[in-house]
Specification:
single chain, alpha+beta, Phosphatase 2c, domain 1, five-stranded antiparallel β-sheet, 7 helices, globular
Length: about 280
């Protein structure tokens, strides 16, 4: 298992496993600039969801996964209200996160995703597949379009300068969080749970990998790896080698004029499950 901060700021990802459950959580960087308990909104929320999952799993029994997730969201919503009672936030400024969740149910594995975390598994045809869809990329492309326009006008913008140019677009995107016609992520409202992606696969289908979008850069941004390659990362040393490759690529690639991105290095989480 890997969960690595992409920079000097606290890691806004979380990953874990307990009993028949495993998960990866990717907190969305906040747009308000506010902090909770000394952490960014995203880091606080990822840790709150991780903590709530660990508390809910032991007595989950045969409860449906959605019931467990409702409990998790309600607990996080209550914690957020208590932590910010003197500083209420607009709806789009509330913390949010993408997640990928794997649960063993007898001889099946249940895959659940929301947002742009994904799960890699071996399909019935033997091919490695990515599971999980999201509306987030449509909105991210709007931010990148604004970034391209800003860099065309001022090619020497610093990372902070570019952020200043696109932050209004980011805020506009965030107003589409968890509404019809927008995109759906885990937040402090349970309505988003009606929009998860879910499927089951056989337990004996081989290893399954859970990834945050930062680790998925190796596939979808830089094109250096395939889903099948992720399923071969079957020990900690191999996973750490892949992470080091990711960080080398990010360090060498100009984020403004190479593979365009707002963060040179993003938080990256990866967890490989070998069902037995």
């Amino acid at each position: 298992m890997i969960s690595d901060a992409g920079g000097t700021a606290p890691n806004e990802d979380a990953a874990g496993h307990q009993g028949d459950w495993a998960w990866v959580i990717d907190g969305a960087t906040g747009v308000s600039g506010a902090t909770i308990e000394g952490l960014s909104d995203a880091a606080w929320f990822a840790r709150a969801v991780d903590r709530a999952l660990r508390g809910a799993i032991p007595d989950s029994g045969q409860s449906p996964t959605d019931a467990v997730l409702h409990r998790v969201v309600e607990e996080c919503a209550q914690a957020f209200t208590q932590a910010t009672r003197d500083a209420p936030r607009a709806w789009h400024e509330r913390p949010s996160a993408a997640f990928a969740l794997l649960r063993r149910l007898g001889d099946r594995l249940e895959m659940t995703t929301l947002g742009d975390c994904q799960i890699v598994h071996r399909a019935e045809d033997g091919q490695a597949r990515l599971f999980g869809t999201s509306g987030i990329p449509v909105f991210e492309e709007r931010t990148l379009r604004a970034a391209r326009q800003a860099l065309q006008a001022a090619p020497d913008l610093t990372p902070a300068g570019l952020w200043d140019r696109v932050v209004d677009q980011v805020r506009t995107n965030r107003r589409s969080m968890n509404i019809d016609g927008g995109y759906w992520v885990l937040s402090t409202d349970t309505a988003a749970l009606a929009h998860v992606d879910r499927a089951t696969i056989p337990v004996d289908g081989g290893p399954v990998a859970l990834c945050s979008d930062g680790f998925l850069r190796l596939i979808d941004l830089f094109g250096r790896w395939t889903p099948g390659g992720f399923l071969a990362l079957d020990d900690q040393a191999k996973a750490e080698t892949a992470l080091r490759e990711l960080r080398r690529i990010e360090a060498a690639d100009d984020p403004h004029h190479g593979h365009l991105r707002l963060k040179r290095s993003d938080d990256a989480s990866f967890l490989l499950v070998r069902p037995v």
